[in-house]
Amino acid sequence: MKLKQYLVGIYNRNSRVVKIGHYAVIAITIVAFLLWFLPIEVKYFDPEAAFTILFALSASYGVLFKILLDEAEFSPSLALAFGYVENFLEPAITQLIQDEENPIFHIYKPDSIQELFEKNIERTRKAIEAKGFKLSDIVLEPRYSRARDVILIEKEEGNQTYFDFPGTLKSLLPYIDYKIASRSNESDIEEKERLGKKLIEKFFKKTEELIAKKELSAHIKICDKQLYFDM
Question: What's the pLDDT score for residue 229?
């Protein structure tokens, strides 16, 4: 994991050099392939052996390049997930555990980032209330983190859960606009939606990994549009 993060860091700082290196290896491999079949003899040079070695190197480089490209593209989601867990979820749950017995916290997983804007949040709140739940806006004040507004959802007295819309995901919108604007021959709206979904998936995958690593899975649950609450 540390090696991957190190390599991704190198790619982010030198993406142009890495891309040029990738294409250079491919070009040299093609040259070796042509020399293998053309009636040209080069002293102390075995084109068959060179092609075999370079082809293996090119294939390995190609796989590594794709991994680095994917990791670099989704790195903003990973950084947001880390900040969300470290700066909010963990301090909040730690405080709740001290204040009450077996607290449960649900995080809403949207299909698109647009669901995290105010008018769509209101629709989701109405859908929750339609299921017979009572919603209250409260302020959590963890001892080791800043205060934050969350929602308290209650079905009946003593049966409750805390709920949060991860608004931090909205900060991905400028990144999505930039990534799609830098591409050509793409349908902007469809590509933005597709990239947005991938970034959301990466965010929640990393969030769940961090929650499990911190042994908080018993207290933190992910909730989708079905709005099922494990209380």
Answer: 85
What band does 26 get if pLDDT is binned at 50, 70 and 90? low
Sequence-distant (6+) residues with CB within 8 A of 172 are 76, 77, 80, 113, 196, 199
Q: For residues 145 and 92, is the Cβ–Cβ distance under 8 A?
A: yes
Nearest C-alpha neighbor of 200 from the set 171, 231, 229: 171
Tell me the pLDDT tens digit for each residue of 109-128.
999 999 999 999 999 999 99
Indicate the pTM of the whole model.
Answer: 0.70
Cα–Cα dist 138/149, whole Å: 6
Instruction: Identify which has the larger pLDDT, 72 or 91.
Output: 91
- Cβ neighbours, 10 Å, residue 40: 10
Q: Which among 82, 89, 90, 80 has a CA at the least distance from the CA of 163? A: 89
Contacts 24+ apart (CB under 8 A), 9-14: 11/68, 11/69, 11/71, 11/72, 12/72, 12/75
